[in-house]
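Hi all, posting the design record for the shared folder.

TITLE: backbone redesign
STEP: 1 of 1
STRUCTURE INPUT:
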């Protein structure tokens, strides 16, 4: 899941990524909700552009020789396209032209 918030904290959109994975387990401690650190990671990183955001998909990259990047719209969260980089990466930074 990806959530986008306004500067005031209002939810702009909440989307399910194209990987369709289960949400991570949570741990509640002293009234605070934490993600269970043993839950599987599905995203290796995110890079924010002017009108798009880029997710390094660990799920999409599992059975590939390279790394899969999923590209989403910053306006409504819909998936625009995916592409593969011919190398394995642990993080991402995309510089738009």
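Okay, here is what came back for every position:
SEQUENCE:
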């Amino acid at each position: 899941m990806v959530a986008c918030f306004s500067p005031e904290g209002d939810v702009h959109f909440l989307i399910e990524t194209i990987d369709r994975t289960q949400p991570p387990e949570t741990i509640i401690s002293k009234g605070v909700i934490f993600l269970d650190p043993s839950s599987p990671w599905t995203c290796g990183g995110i890079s924010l552009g002017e009108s798009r955001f880029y997710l390094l998909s660990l799920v999409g990259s599992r059975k590939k020789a390279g790394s899969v990047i999923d590209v989403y719209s910053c306006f409504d969260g819909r998936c625009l396209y995916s592409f593969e980089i011919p190398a394995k990466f642990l993080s991402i930074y995309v510089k738009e032209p």
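COMMENT: The first helix runs from residue 58 to 61.
Let me know if anyone wants the other runs.
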